[in-house]
Amino acid sequence: MLARRSNAIIGLFLFLTFNSFCQKNDTLSFFQPAEALDPPRLRLAIGTAALSYTGFSLGLYHSWYKQYPTSSFHLFDDWGEWANVDKAGHIYSAHMQASLLYKASRWTGLDESSSILWASILSGVSMTTVELMDGFSTQWGFSIYDTGANLIGIGLFAGQQKQWQEQRLIMKVSSWPNDYSEQYRDAQITTISEQTFLSRSESLYGSHFAEQYLKDYNAQTIWLSANVRSFFPEAPLPSWLNVAAGYGAEHMLGGFENQWSESDQQLTLDPELFPRHQQFYLALDVDFSRIKTESPFLKTVFSLLNVLKAPSPAIEINSLGELQFHLIFL
């Protein structure tokens, strides 16, 4: 899930930035990238990355994979699972990790080419670690499609950085938890009880805001956000204005279908009452990294904010043939 792949690298970068900031450094000089390779910064970055990766891998194994039996390495065909929202999430996570690792590498004073290379390699290692754990778990399996999505995300970062020396196309995410009680009532489901319906949603996506924000595929939208002025320099528009295309899905209470077992009973949601469908969006966005500021600290904050899609009006077209307008899409 997106939660397993996103938090580690965000935490790594935040730790690298703010833990070091608490040391006796001048604020301005600390937040500025080093002009040449700075050995103390490089050692700090390597140590932080190694500790974060080790802690993330061990924590993930003990909190997630240890609950399920292991087996010999095997593949799993998960194309179409969760309407491929998870595949879009892989592209997002890989691109986001590579982008933040690139900034951390430049902060140490590594040159452009080395920073792109190491950011791509380390993002790939982080993402592949999770895939390998999947490959040895009886619950899942190694996914060729997930791995391909990871490579697309890394390639999107590296290709742009090489070609344009900037990220004109940014992967972003937005998520707003669903009210499954309201969905149950609106769908007028009678084949199962509301308690059973809510129990299923909580077992998949959690019951608290933070859990649902990160785990609920019904709530997540993955965006490709394009900076207008980067492609059209003469356009009379703010330099930070982006146009974003989003993808999501709705009414999913199972990977491939809304069917599950509970107390030796097979439960199925009527697809007419609770139709699984895909959603496609077009919306405005903000590239926070292009907001002009002389503060290196704010530049760092804006870089971190840039992993999230800014709330804005949006147009939705879905696979049910519906056209909807959202005044503020969260």
Could you characterize the architecture of this molecule?
This protein is of the alpha+beta class. It has 2 domains: 1-166, no CATH class; 168-330, no CATH class. It has helices spanning 2-21, 27-31, 39-63, 85-108, 112-135, 144-164, 180-187, 194-205, 209-215, 228-231, 296-305, and strands at residues 169-175, 220-227, 241-250, 259-262, 265-268, 277-286, 312-318, 323-329. Helix 4 packs antiparallel against helix 5. The longest helix has 25 residues, at 39-63. It is globular and about 65 Å long.
Mean pLDDT: 89
Given the structure, what is the number of helices? 11
Q: Proportion of β residues? A: 15-25%
What is the CA–CA distance across the termini?
20 Å
Strand order of the largest sheet: 1-2-3-6-7-8
Overall SS class: alpha+beta
Major sheet summary line: 6 strands, antiparallel
Identify the overall geometry: globular
Number of DSSP-assigned strands: 8
Series of H and E elements:
HHHHHHEHHHEHEEEEHEE
Output the radius of gyration. Answer: 21 Å
Helix proportion range: 40-55%
> Spans of 5+ residues with little confidence (pLDDT < 50)?
2-26
- Tally of individual domains: 2
Short descriptors:
330 residues, single chain, 8 strands, six-stranded antiparallel sheet, two-stranded antiparallel ribbon, globular, disordered N terminus
Q: What is the gist of this entry?
A:
The protein has helices spanning 2-21, 27-31, 39-63, 85-108, 112-135, 144-164, 180-187, 194-205, 209-215, 228-231, 296-305; strands at residues 169-175, 220-227, 241-250, 259-262, 265-268, 277-286, 312-318, 323-329. It has 330 residues and is of the alpha+beta class.
